[in-house]
Amino acid sequence: MLQALNSTSSSSFSKLFASRSTLLCFFQLSISSNSKKMEEHRTPSAVQANLDSRSGRKSASLSKSSLNTKVGQSSSLSPIQRCRSPQSVESQRMQSSPKRAIGASPEKHPGSESEGPFDICIPANKGGVKLKKSFLESNREKRKKLESPAGQHLRPGMVLLKKFLDHMDQVKIVKKCRELGIGSGGFYRPGYRDGAKLHLQMMCLGKDWSPESRSYDKSRSFDGAVPPEIPEEFRKLVDRALNDSHEYTKNVEEIPNMSPDICIVNFYSNSGRLGLHQDRDESEESLKKGLPVVSFSIGDSAEFLYSDARDVDMPEKVMLESGDVLIFGGHSRHIFHGVPGIKPNTGPEILVDERTKLRPGRLNLTFRKY
Ligand SMILES: O=C(O)CCC(=O)C(=O)O
Ligand SMILES: [Fe+2]
Which stretches are tagged as biased composition: Polar residues (predicted)? Predict the structure, then answer.
């Protein structure tokens, strides 16, 4: 469903954005070298829905921590031009500038659809990559852990719990996702309505969410597979994260409690990415209540961009590292967010060594209530 346009800009942010939308209607993200404004094309109903949902909200203030800076302060983010496009607009765009359409250049992912479900770990019989970290690197990791504050209140309704998942939790999550991911209903590389592919592998738990139809269902339309249940141990972690988040909010109502019935598991290889989007395909009731999205990051680090409005020039950004849990609900439930890229070889060694053998990349689990 999504597409993004490449940039010819010399900016450091000229990397392609693949934009995936869990919106009622989707959009594509493009980066323009000559425009300072984000631009959007969407259906009138979507425009209305979006205006309705965002009316009356103010821009949030910024945290000044090193992990949470205005994008423009530390890097020269190029202006972003974003288009959620009906298919016709999309096709025209691809025809007029084929080289700039992300979906036009299929990305090579290991484990494509034809090979069966994607395996996020390197199978035992394949020697695989062993990325041993240097002693210095390992020490740096330990120091970082000690220095990192336990939680950050990023803006109303949005809390980041640093290193919330310990190494053993992370190993268990990887192993469980691997086991489920190679079975029925496991990982696949999803596509959008116009045929463009997302730059990640995805698996749903509890319910299916399709980027193509932008809807939830009991089973997957393309193969009829019923998604595996959300494991109980995952639910417990979500519960604990939500409880802990209240230590950092003004009051408990700021992030309402939520019992997930869907988990979207994404695996990003080193070239994976996800364009700015809103998570808005959940039920009206869930969205109205601001029931939070609880997001686990495991493996390599990634920058997470977020902004309150679609037409903002400079989204804020925060680094998501292995073990971090990001929660956005309440007033932040409708934030635009995306992952512009993965930082290779930044995950904990225990995930990539013989014990776990996670492929290079990043695993992300977002829990929501439909
Ligand atoms: O990978 C992430 O941190 C974000 C994932 C996300 O936004 C989504 O799956 O909707
Ligand atoms: Fe999302």
Answer: 68-98
Cβ atoms of 338 and 275 within 8 Å: the answer is: yes
The pTM of the full predicted model, rounded to 2 decimals, is 0.71
Q: How many domains does the chain have?
A: 1
ipTM confidence = 0.99
The set of residues, in sequence order, having a beta carbon less than 8 Å from that of 139 and lying 6+ positions away, is none
- pLDDT tens-digit readout, 155-207: 999 999 999 999 999 999 999 999 999 999 999 999 999 999 999 999 999 99
Q: Which atom of ligand 1 is nearest to the CA of 268?
A: 1
Q: Output DSSP code: residue 176.
A: H
Instruction: Determine whether 84 is exposed, middle or buried from the number of CB atoms within 10 Å of its CB (0-12, 13-18, 19+).
Output: buried
CATH number of the structural domain spanning residue 315:
2.60.120.590
The DSSP-derived string for 138-149 is HHHHHHHHHHS-
Do 298 and 351 form a contact (C-beta atoms < 8 A)? yes
Tokens 């990001």 -> residue: 326
Range of the domain at 131: 4-368
308 is in an annotated binding site: no
Report the atom number in ligand 1 closest to the C-alpha of 22. 10
Per the annotation, does 277 bind a ligand? yes
